[in-house]
Amino acid sequence: MQLIPNSSRPTSFIIQFFNVNIPSQSVLRLIIIRFHFVACMIKILLHIILINVGKFLTSIRLFVIMNDSWMLH
């Protein structure tokens, strides 16, 4: 590990903290990867749900418009 000047002591402390705790860092990385994966899955699911809801609402709107036009005739 290279020597770090005293002016940047907090950053060096953080670097040492992370270098000492390699297992916890790998666990943290795993948690972050898993969280990112879950977030992506939730985003995809929300996107699919929103698309389906949008299609459903547009179909209802078209049905209502068609019924209104049929009632007018």
Structural account:
There is one protein chain. This protein has 73 residues and is mainly alpha-helical. The protein has one domain. The protein is built from two helices and no strands. The radius of gyration is 28 Å and the shape is rod-shaped. The N and C termini lie far apart (85 Å).
Give the oligomeric state: single chain
The tally of strands reads 0
Q: Give the helix proportion (percent range).
A: over 70%
Helical segment tally? 2
Q: Identify low-pLDDT runs.
A: none
Calculate the mean pLDDT score and round it: 74
Largest sheet: none
Compressed to H and E, one letter per element, the order equals HH
Q: What's the gyration radius in Å?
A: 28 Å
List the domain count as a whole number: 1
Shape: rod-shaped
**What structural class do you assign from the helix and strand content?**
mainly alpha
The proportion of strand residues reads: under 5%
Distance between the termini: 85 Å
Relevant terms:
single chain; 73 residues; mainly alpha; rod-shaped
Ordered list of secondary-structure elements with their pairings:
Blueprint: H1 9-20, H2 22-72
